[in-house]
Amino acid sequence: MLNDPLAAALTKVFNAERIGKQEVLLKPASKILKRILTIMNEHRYIGSFEEVEDGKGNVLKVHLLGNINRCGVIKPRFSTKKNEFEKWEKRYLPAKDFGIIVVSTPQGIITHIHAKEKSTGGRLLAYCY
Hints:
This protein is an alpha+beta fold.
């Protein structure tokens, strides 16, 4: 039993990326993981991904592009206000406007950039650069 499936999935993506694999299989598939992968795809960190039915929680097949320097989850899932994102950028990203922090907000799971535009806070989930 996995304690944190999201952390296990992002670690698996990062390790596969680091050794140069073209694709990776992530299990189990969840809505949060799919949304985070969609955001990473929109920002061109990963290629496309598809859900494959296996009868036991499904598997996500992710195509890698070689664009990830580092990715991972943020634990504990810190709460943040709309004007505190710069503090978290300094902590988790190497430079200003380089990389993304994924945030769970009342408007859904979005990047910290969109959260600033929408002027909303939330809980920090993951980072990628």
